[in-house]
Amino acid sequence: MSATLLMGKPIADKITEELKKEIAALKEKHDIAPSLASVLVGDDPASKSYAGRQQKSAVAAGINYQLHELPGDISEQKLIDFIEELNRDSSVNGIIVQIPLPEGIDEYKVQSAIAQKKDVEGVTPANMGLIVYERPRLCPCTALSAIKMVESTGVDVYGKNLTVVGRSAIVGKPAALLMLQRKYSATTTVCHTGTAKAGNLPKHVGNADILIAAAGSPELIKGEWIKEGSIVVDVGFNWVGGKAVGDVEFEAAKEKAAYITPVPGGVGPLTVTILLQNTVEATRWQLE
User: Do the strands 238-240 and 243-245 form a parallel or antiparallel pair, or are they unpaired?
Assistant: First the structure.
């Protein structure tokens, strides 16, 4: 039997409806509409496309959206100075810096300059640290989207074996840490290039009741490795021969998994909505 497809749009639509209510309540109680500032450096086509999706979704939800387009030859210090201006601007509730940045600019330094309570991507050291202490406020959007996908199945994940493939700072690591929270209590394994080099990736994937694939490598995970009846959340988005594919060999995997996210249509549509959810949460945090 083929797996049930986990689609991102229905979950995103449900969250958006809740956000509209929360935004209306903020306007009524505090006379404030959440505002999101997006910083785009240079002319990366993918970043411009992502910013366009952000703007469309933000406006639909009732969030004010500002796109700041800066020249690709801006210095790192001038970019940080600009972010600090946004930090001081009380009319801005959330800040996102579009990645990638031009060569020669340190992404970590730039993202670390964002004020903790305006960090709607959850990328600052302070917000990452709150996840470790099980007190998350603003979490990385894609990592949280993956968790929402798991939650949407309604399966009790307590004590289940979770394998995360990929250890990036914005997806793999935070997803693993979020699922380690006591409310989930998944037994968590994180796989990476060292795991693959040792030849142990199939074993860990095959042991996973829940698999979150976030390696950024097309069809790295073979369908035959997937555990029968598992939940597979594929965060990967790779172009191969003009077609979008995930990190999981989808056609074979869907015959073994109980639930699986397609690529495209799975995690992707939810990520922008989580960004907006974080913007509303950031606004509330600033009002405390």
Answer: antiparallel
Task: Give the H or E element holding residue 65.
Answer: strand 64-70
- State phi, psi for 145 to the nearest 5 degrees: -60, -40
Q: What distance, in Å, lies between the first and last C-alpha atoms of the chain?
A: 50
Please state the pTM of the whole predicted model: 0.95
Task: Name 234's bridge partners.
Answer: 213
- 170, 182, 213, 279 from 135: Cα distances, Å: 17, 11, 25, 17
Burial letters 168-195, b for 16+ CB under 10 A, else e:
bebbbbbbbbbbbeeebebbbbbbeeeb
**pLDDT per residue over 129-146, tens digit each?**
999 999 999 999 999 999
Q: Phi/psi zone of residue 199: left (φ > 0), alpha (ψ -120 to 50 degrees), beta?
A: left
| CB neighbourhood size of 210 (10 A) | 26
